[in-house]
Design a protein that fits this description.
alpha/beta, 14 strands, 18 helices, binds iron/sulfur cluster
Length: 495
C-alpha cells in the first residue's frame, strides 16, 4: 500500500490501544480509505477516529461503530468532514507526518516529535515511515555527533541521563562482536513506541549499530506487552533492506527484568535473574560475553528523530495513578510537571506525585521542569513516569507498599538492597507502632543508595527518603495514632 501521508482524497484513521477490528470493518464497507494506526498515548480519547482531507482533520473521540457509521456515510456522500459533528477540527500542513495539535485534553499538550507517528502513521507500514523521511541511512559521523548530544532515557538504558557517545566508544573499541539491545521492558512510553512508532525505534537501533560496528539488534520486551511485541515483530519483518539482523525476544514481566544487566540475563535464557557486577559493564562484556549496547526505545527513537530533524530536547512523560485514564505526552525539557499532569483528569484533589517510576520521589510541588537536571536536583526520578496521588491517598501506605515491593522483588544479590529494603519496610511499619525514626530512615537509604550493585537498590529507598523530607507531618501523625486520610490499613496489611 502506498503512503497515507498527504494522500489524495479522504483518509480515516482509527487509533486505539487494541486492534480496532469492529471499527475497521465498518469503515471498509465503504469506498473511503480507512486505516488502523497506533494509540496516540491518550487512551481516554480512544477509539479516536480522525478524518483527513487535504489540510484539515476532523476528530471524533471515544468513537462507537454507530458514530463511525454516520461519519463514513457523511464522507461517502461527499459531505464536508465537519458535517458529522466531530469533537474538534484542526487545520494543518496537508503533508504533515505527525498528528497535529488538537484542542482536546492530552492532545493539546507539548509537541509530537518522538510521539509523532503515534496515532497518525500506520505502525508497520514502511511507506508511511518513508514518507515521513525515514529509512534514509545517515553517515556514521552524523550518528556519532548525535550520540554526543543525546542522553539515555530511563533506568533500562545503560546511559541513563548520560551522553551516549562515551559508551559507544567503549563498545566500538572492545574486543568481540558488538550487539545492540533495545530494552523496551517495563516502561509505558517504551511499550507505546513499539506499538505505535516501531520504525523510529528500529531506525535508531540500526543507527546505533552502525556507530559501534554491531551486526545485530535484539528487541527485548516484557511478555505482558503483547501488542507492542506483535507490532515490532511485524515492523522488523517489513523493514526494507535492514542493515543488520533484527530479532525480537521477550522476558518475564518482573520489574527488575528491566535492569540492563538482568535484561541480558533474560535474553540469554537464564531463569534466575540477578544483576551483573560492574565493571566491566555490558558495553565491554555483555550479551554472551560480547560488547553490548543497551538502550531504551525512548533513547533510540530520539536518536532517529534527531538524525532526521536535528536535536530538540524533549522528554516523554506518562501520567498515571489516581487519574481517570493515563496519558503520555511529549514536553520540552523546560516544561514543568504541572504541564504533564494537566493532560489528565485527577480522581479527586491532587495531593502529591511520585515522580520517576516505581521508585520515584514524592512531591507536592509540580513546578519542577521535566528535564533530568531539574528532576535530580529535586530528588525526583527521571524514568518519565508520574504517578498521581489524590487527596484520599495515605503517603505512608503508598511508601510502605513501594518499599515492601522492593523487599519482595529485589534479586537478592547484594546485601545493601536485599537487607536494606527489608529493614526499611520494618522502619516504616514501626511508625504505626508509634516509633518514627527519620534519621534512621535517611541513614539506611543513604547506605542503600551508595553501595547497592544496581539501580534497583540505588533507587528503592527514594520514596521513603522523599516522604520523610516532604511529608514529615503526615508520617509523624501516624506515629501519634492518626492517619490524616483515614485510609490506612494496619501494618500487617501493608504489602
Ligand atoms: S541492588 Fe537489589 S536488585 Fe540490584 S543486584 Fe543488589 S539485590 Fe539485586
Amino acid at each position: 500500500m502506498t503512503s497515507i501521508i498527504a494522500a489524495d482524497g479522504t483518509t480515516i484513521r482509527i487509533s486505539g490501544t487494541g486492534p480496532p477490528s469492529d471499527l475497521l470493518a465498518v469503515a471498509r464497507e465503504s469506498d473511503v480509505r480507512a486505516v488502523a494506526v497506533g494509540s496516540t498515548g491518550v487512551p481516554a480519547l480512544e477509539p479516536l477516529v480522525t478524518v483527513t482531507n487535504g489540510g484539515e482533520t476532523a476528530v471524533h473521540t471515544d468513537c462507537s461503530t454507530a458514530e463511525l457509521d454516520t461519519v463514513v456515510a457523511s464522507v461517502s456522500g461527499g459531505s464536508d468532514i465537519r458535517a458529522a459533528e466531530p469533537d474538534a477540527v484542526v487545520e494543518h500542513d496537508p503533508g504533515t507526518a505527525t498528528l497535529p495539535p488538537v484542542d482536546l485534553p492530552g492532545l493539546d499538550v507539548g509537541r509530537r516529535r518522538v510521539l509523532g507517528a503515534a496515532g497518525w502513521r500506520r505502525p508497520t507500514d514502511a511507506a508511511d515511515h518513508e514518507a515521513a523521511g525515514g529509512f534514509d541511512a545517515p553517515e556514521t559521523t552524523a550518528v556519532l555527533d548525535a550520540g554526543a548530544d543525546l542522553r539515555g532515557r530511563g533506568w533500562g538504558d545503560l546511559c541513563q541521563d548520560e551522553p551516549l557517545a562515551p559508551t559507544w566508544e567503549t563498545t566500538r573499541d572492545a574486543d568481540g562482536d558488538p550487539t545492540v539491545v533495545v530494552n523496551a521492558h517495563g516502561n509505558p512510553t517504551d511499550a507505546l513506541l513499539l506499538a505505535s512508532a516501531p520504525f523510529d525505534v528500529l531506525e535508531g537501533a540500526t543507527a546505533a549499530a552502525e556507530a559501534v560496528g554491531a551486526d545485530g539488534v535484539i528487541v527485548y520486551a516484557s511478555t505482558a506487552d503483547e501488542r507492542a511485541v506483535e507490532t515490532v515483530r511485524a515492523a522488523a519483518a517489513n523493514y526494507p533492506d535492514p542493515p543488520v539482523a533484527i530479532d525480537v525476544v521477550t522476558g518475564p514481566a518482573e520489574h527488575r527484568a528491566a535492569e540492563p544487566t538482568m535484561a541480558l540475563e533474560a535474553i540469554e535464557g537464564n531463569h534466575r535473574l540477578e544483576a551483573r557486577i560492574r565493571p566491566p559493564g555490558p558495553e565491554s562484556v555483555g550479551l554472551h560475553g560480547q560488547p553490548t549496547l543497551v538502550h531504551t526505545p525512548r533513547t533510540l527513537a530520539n536518536l532517529a528523530v534527531a538524525l532526521r530533524e536535528g536535536e530538540a530536547d524533549t522528554r516523554t512523560v506518562t501520567v498515571e495513578g489516581d487519574v481517570a485514564a493515563p496519558a503520555t505526552v511529549e514536553l520540552a525539557a523546560s516544561d514543568t510537571l504541572s504541564t504533564a499532569v494537566d493532560a489528565v483528569d485527577v480522581d479527586g484533589e491532587f495531593k502529591a506525585a511520585c515522580v520517576g517510576g516505581r521508585f520515584g520521589g514524592l512531591t507536592a510541588d509540580l513546578d519542577v521542569a521535566v528535564g533530568p537536571a531539574a528532576l535530580s536536583a529535586a530528588d525526583l526520578g527521571t524514568e518519565g513516569v508520574v504517578q498521581v496521588l489524590a487527596d484520599d491517598r495515605c503517603v505512608l501506605e503508598f511508601v510502605g507498599q513501594r518499599t515492601q515491593f522492593a523487599a519482595d522483588e529485589n534479586c537478592g544479590r547484594c546485601v545493601p538492597c536485599r537487607e536494606g529494603t527489608t529493614q526499611l519496610a520494618e522502619l516504616l511499619r514501626d511508625i504505626y507502632d508509634g516509633t518514627y525514626a527519620p534519621a534512621d530512615i535517611r541513614e539506611l537509604v543513604r547506605v542503600m543508595d551508595g553501595s547497592s550493585i544496581c539501580a534497583f537498590g540505588v533507587e528503592a529507598g527514594r520514596p521513603a527518603r522523599t516522604a520523610v523530607a516532604e511529608f514529615e507531618a503526615e508520617l509523624q501523625a501516624h506515629a501519634d495514632g492518626d492517619c490524616p486520610t483515614d485510609s490506612c490499613p494496619q501494618p500487617a496489611e501493608v504489602t
